[in-house]
Amino acid sequence: MESLKTILYFSLFRYPLKLEEICSFSISKDCPKIEAELVELIAKKIIFKIEDYYYPEYDPSCLEKRKNGNKMAVDALVKAKERATLISKFPFVEAVGVSGSLSKGYYDKDSDIDFFVITKPGKLWISRTFLMLYKKLFLFNSRKYFCINYFMSSSSLEVEEKNRFTATEIKTLIPFEGKMVFEEFYSKNDWVSGLLGQYDPKLESVGVISKPNGVKMLEAILDTKAGNQLDSLFKKTTVAFWKLKFRQMHTDDFKMALKSTKDISKHHPLNFQKKVINALNDKYDEIRINHNIELQREYV
User: Fold this and answer.
1) pTM for the model
2) Which residue ranges run through the membrane (predicted)?
């Protein structure tokens, strides 16, 4: 029932799927077999087919929403590419990609462009601070086209949380800059294939980062013992601010949603990953109760 799991997962975002999309998220690549399974699910009214799309409810408005979002994503991807190139010029940035809804081909008036940034080891917090200052000073803290909430260093590329949410984000990630670093990133996270089937990220068009001379000089100045101390100071200061700002957050939720180590910086104060996994398990419970189908639960 992997096809049903995939449909339920994307239904959390009101996003109906085509057959080839469902197949791409399945360990089995036998599309005729998957289609036969979908036909059976339709016959039992567990899912519905609207045009060429599958969804757990008969809701044509979701299809219209998806089509409009797909159209808007075309222009948004052009802007994302431009911003990714800009981000790649910042000190110690080694790779930049786009995640979130845009990476899945969807964008609307309420969407942000979510960037995933990989930095040089030991310089993550310096790189993050420069980017945050740029956003605050030059973009007036707008996150619409400049939402950078996940940093990792190239010495720690394996994603620790291995679940359907993180696997989907990795599989749909659009790498823009830092080809060689992304090659290693995908190699370190080949566990995704065990959850969502084999995938072959397209890296031919991913850029190789070239820094301006001024940035190279700044990196040379900061690639020192003093730079290491500054990185530690930026981390300590940022985490202290977050602990104060989000002091009502449970400790375990803080550690997950605002994970802050030498090699990782996450800023997800709404703890979206946990909310998605919990909502998906609720969907599984509905299927079990209404249709007597047991789906293995997901864990954060």
Assistant:
1) 0.95
2) none
